[in-house]
Amino acid sequence: MNEDTESGLAPYARIVADIRSCIDTGELRPGDRVPSTREITRRWGVAMATATKALTVLRREGRVEAVRGVGTVVRRAPTTDPVPADPAGPVAETSEDGGSRGRSRTTPGAERRPHPEPHLTREGIVRAAIAIADDEGIEGLSMRRVSTELRVSTMALYRHVASKGELLTEMVDHLYTVDALPEPPPDDWRRALEVALLGEWEIYRRHPWAARLTVMAGGVVSPGLMRNAEWMMRVIVAQGNTPDEALEILTIVSAYTSGMALQATRVALEEHEIGMDAAQWWCHRGPDLHRLADQGAYPTMFGVSGPPDVDGMFEPGMRRLLDGIAPLMERTGTL
């Protein structure tokens, strides 16, 4: 990509100009995949919102389009070059006599007009929102972003989903419904809880944004999420525990899963933001770490061989946790 800095342009506009230049020169041809938002954040050193804005401008110009299962690609018939502008704002069009008349920035290319709405469904909206969150993070998700992806007006979404909060709830519900736990649960309580915890871990690893929605204060409450909790509590109550005792145990094991998921998500986000994995980060920060090591105050910390592998730690850690709660499950111990 063109690395030249164009003076006076906002960061998103510079990215638009660079990608547009690659399209104009033929470096990126029709059908070629353009950098994703994650790749843009790494390559240009910008925030996710800036990367999303840049791709939105290119879509509105008619230069790129989203293709399910592929990503954002160069359109087969790109439009002419409009001046980079805030995709959310109106622009002024100068008349022949030198005055200006308002013109709404809706779709710079006619082919970018919204589709008729009969094809729009609640499930389709939820699936599109999940795909956006998977690719761009939950920060990149908005009703407007979903409407752009589906090529409908934003107001059309509200006929199916009342608010962004309702959309987030439906997204989480979809994940827990698609990956529903088996009925009946395994007879062995350890095996049953392993199935539940590993299943939830897989959801969080495939959709890292979900952990934040299910564990933070004010998180979503959905039927699918409640069914998951009910399933686990039934397993625990079947061992002779009361519902209150089952909730205590559920809180412990769920905190382990969600906490590890948030840690893994944070590591992944940092890798995307700084463009290096944990091991590379340790090497990059070598001089700083060596200065601390030379102080001699942290011999245990600097006795490790490398950064932890959160994914590799999850399953063995889960088994040790289940060992620890065994007395609670059998009520031979107390909290």
TrEMBL record:
InterPro entries documented for this protein: Homeodomain-like_sf, HTH-type_TetR-like_transc_reg, HTH_TetR, Repressor_TetR_C, Tet_transcr_reg_TetR-rel_C_sf, Tscrpt_reg_HTH_GntR, WH-like_DNA-bd_sf, WH_DNA-bd_sf
Domain HTH tetR-type: 119-179
Molecular function GO labels: DNA-binding transcription factor activity; transcription cis-regulatory region binding
Region (Disordered): 75-123
Stretches assigned to the HTH gntR-type domain: 9-77
Keyword DNA-binding: yes
Compositional bias annotation for Basic and acidic residues: 110-123
Pfam families per record: GntR, TetR_C_1, TetR_N
Start-end of Low complexity biased regions: 75-93
Gene Ontology terms: biological process: negative regulation of DNA-templated transcription
Residue ranges flagged as DNA-binding region: 142-161
Record-given protein name: GntR family transcriptional regulator
